[in-house]
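Session log. Operator J.P. requested a structure for one protein chain; no other inputs attached. Running the standard single-chain path with token output.
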Amino acid sequence: MEFRRLLHPLPLLLIFVFVAVAVADLVQELSEEPPPPLELAGSTDPRFETLEPVIDFRSDRGDPAVEIRPTPKLAQGQWSAPRPSGAWARGPAAALSIELAASGHRVLILECMPTSDRPPTRAVNLVMNGIDCGEAALDPGWKRYRFILPTGATRLGPNRLALSFPGAGDGKRKPRRLLVRRLGLFHEEDVDVAILDAAAPVSLDLDADRATIRSSGILEVPLVLEDRTDALQMRYRFSSALGGAVVEVVQSQAGTDGADDVVRTSVSAEEEVSGRIRIPLHGRRGAYILRIRAELVAPDNRLLLSSLRLVEEGDPSRRPRTAGPPRS
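Structure written below.
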């Protein structure tokens, strides 16, 4: 074929039309209005329930934007009211109850300081759900003490933890014995006690519509869908190629004969460290809960969720996906 045949005006015209259409599509794409952002905060505050909880006994703990669970229930009369430095365990023994979202923890780390009153508190014994978990000799000042928990010491649901102080006496008077600042429960025996210094397990930037999850747990955000909604979509990014997350949109069917309406998808950092989640809602309305269960295997892993959007029916910003099939 001669070179001049390639310059035939018809092919050149087709190329010109193709480029013009592509440029027009690009201009239209850039000028389209993005979908409305998802309101992270509903009528009630979002909450995060940790699978390996670090429980803070200080009165000024936590992020006001999100409720961190579990919250310990201190036995009345056996503890002081929480203060900025922690809560005092009083008398010869003090108990508390914790509602756990997981079981099988093998380590408990206690951050505390014994009283300097007379008689001094020299040791603390720990019992979890009636199972003796050992005793630690106490040093003056703030220290962290590790207890190895027997198999089955913790369970899903309510747990009772009791602290006793050998040699403290059994008199009617209940002097302060131990100032407790933080308590952590973990599944791996080799966990570093410095983990108590880690940042908050979850943080929400409501203005930017993004959430950062730093530890394994369950984030629940209440939603109210007043308009017909085609889908909920967001972007995700793990900081490590280990772990994953299950994302659910749940509509409670309480008061009816049916089970809760759940739309679920899952992502794995091993398959894709980052990507997009799209949950079809098929034009539904009403009160929902966005639930994200994160399993962050690596200790330094975190899950960043961003660009949370509700896509409405007929929204011009909705474009067909060119990637592979949707996750199940």
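Operator note: The chain has one helix and 19 strands.
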